[in-house]
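Reopening this ticket.

The earlier resolution said the output was attached, but the attachment link was broken on my side. Pasting everything inline this time so it's all in one place.
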Amino acid sequence: MNSDGPAGARRPLGTRPRVGLLGTGPWAARTHAPALAAHAGSEFAGVWGRRPAAAAELADAHGVKVYDSPEALFADCDVVAFALPPDVQAPLAVEAAAAGCHLLLDKPVATTVAGARALAGAAARHGVASIVFLTLRFAEPTSDWVAEQAGRDGWFTARAHWYGAVYPPDGTKSPYAASPWRQEKGGLWDVGPHALSVLLPVLGDVTALTAARGPADLVHLTLRHTSGASSTAALTLSAPKAASGVGVELRGLPGIAALPDWTDVPGAYGRALDALLHAARTGDPHPCDASFGLRLTELLAQAEEQLAQP
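Inline output:
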């Protein structure tokens, strides 16, 4: 452990910080663990999971330690990567921050504003760096595209869609279909953070939001932004496979701009870890930090509240 100060103090990082992973599900096995094992600038230290057998299997696959408790992992690591349901992640992230660990978070950071606020507050209070892994903000070439469009003025409107086929009408299911929180919260909470993570940096924060339901878990959002532009987002995990897809289109004085395709999700995760280590070493917060995660939760909770009204 690279720490010369007391627990809770921001840890000075050596040349190869130790990174521990919390979580053992499909997302952890397919993305988090392979990306951490391949990362040249850090050491993949080990895994903890709520299912000890799954944690042992994932740790063995990468030749790392399996931890008996989150606290043991926190004590041994400089960075904690999370691959847990959001409302399991949030309180553990608060504990990790108190132990002085930097936080590589999954989205959404929590599904309650109170949980997200506690997490963001803990990161700030203990001086630890944080990153929320929002794929489009770290994948190539989408990350550069977002930055380029955010640097242009005159956007009039935008439309985003994320038509996921996790629960398609034909009954076939993806490896992520067994996730209880996805089943309960649907596309609004699972893919909504991705859409908002593109719209907000380009068009500005949301000043007004309206939410409406479609079939299955489909949710339509209409947003007004601080720039004066408006946008829409269609979000679902229940699209027919033939109709699935992701896109963002911007229209305004610069013309029409469309989100490019991307494929390398583990590579994007590695770049998110790079960004976290940079923030930890410099003390400069990243735009996708825990406070941004809090803002996303506030907006999604506002939409959920509207949808619950008769």
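Reporter confirms the inline version is readable. The two ends are 53 Å apart (CA to CA). The longest helix spans residues 290-308.
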